[in-house]
Amino acid sequence: MSARTDVRVMVASESEAWGDKLASAVEQAGGTVVCRARNAIEAMARARVLKPEVSIVDVGLPYSLGRDDVRMSRMSGLDTAMNIVRDAPDSNAVVVNSKAISDAGEDCDSTPVLCRQAGGGCVPFDARELRTHGAAEGRVIFAEFLFKNAPLLSCASRISHQLFAAGGLFVLCGMALMMTLVLVTAGVAVVGLGLFILLGAAIAAAVARIQPKFA
Amino acid sequence: MMDKKRLLLSSLAFKDLEDSQADRVLELASVAQYDAGDSVFWEKDVANKLYVVNSGKVALQMSVPAPGYNTGRRLTMDIITETGVFGWSAVVDSHPYSLTAVCIERASVLEIDGNGLRLLLENEASIGYRVMNGLIRLVASRLDETRHLLMSERMTSEPVAVASLS
């Protein structure tokens, strides 16, 4: 995690859950979320009053109210970002692609990361960089929101490790029961269960190996 | 990346074309890539290309006057995604683009030469009819969606206005 900076950030997203993820990404990048907004009107008003240095805006932000039956009701993110930097030329606005948020999905070990699109790849931001990385045109930066696997283990590999441990324990317990000679049948059953869990662990390990990693 | 012909035939404007007719259109087409933040064209530019989005998202923005500012403010009128068509002004002779197209995520688009397409539509009546039919469908769908938006905003603002009176 980056060291906490004094960069004040506003997060604007209609979805509470995505807003939480964006806020979490900001915290991961070392920024401080000073306010949240659910639509364009709210975002522009809060930006005027609270003057955040960086505004992170979901591209699918509605102007007032998003409606599922009206496709065009959720397309004010870019306008909002442009208006915020226009009103406060010393601030930056980051437009985040909401599809990237939903596509990213959730992983038990994943860490939300904000990164800028560059040459087909994605370069992670830290909060200070968000403040200084002003693009020439109105300081609107286009960003992706991805989940980065935790540094040591991915979700699947963590599950496989846990299953290996549990399976091994069951096999050992089963063998101990078999050695009592009285509970042989129960021991065989426990060993069988342990082997079954070990098989699951092997499958999880294979999944972890083929799982695409965030670079 | 989607096959060029499949992409063309998946788009609302060209979906009625036969395979051989799609090939004639594709002779005028090339693929281009744009990064997020790139402008594909600007409002009032000479409209010389019609675009079909292969991947990514393109925002169509309109400039509106902004009191107190030297330059206009831009409002997003639509966001075009995969298989969507934009820049249809290129099919209409001497018609400048009425909106600015900005990529909001890295996009791959099929660019169709407007002059060549107009000539093809003039010379090949069947292709001309089918493409124009598709373009009318496209423009009508945009109009329909705009109507829906207008209605929903009025329905949303009415209760707010009534509440503010009481």
Name some characteristics of this structure.
heterodimer, A: 215 residues, alpha/beta, 7 strands, 20% strand, disordered C terminus, B: alpha+beta, six-stranded antiparallel beta sheet, 6 strands, 40% helix, 30% strand
Question: Overview of this structure, please?
Answer:
The complex is a heterodimer of chains A (215) and B (166). In chain A, helix 2 (40-50) packs parallel to helix 3 (77-87) and helix 6 packs antiparallel against helix 7 (184-210). The radius of gyration of chain A is 24 Å and the shape is elongated. Helix content of chain A is 47%, strand content 20%. Chain A is an alpha/beta fold and 215 residues long. Chain B is of the alpha+beta class and 166 residues long. Helices cover 40% and strands 30% of the residues of chain B. Chain B has four helices and six strands; from the N terminus they run ααββββββαα. The chains are: A alpha/beta (215), B alpha+beta (166). Chain A binds chain B through residues 59, 63-65, 67, 69-73, 75-79, 82-83, 86, 95, 97, 99-100, 117-120, 135, 137, 140-142, 144, and chain B through 35-37, 57, 59, 61, 66, 69, 73-76, 78-79, 102, 104-106, 145-146, 148-149, 152-153, 156-157.
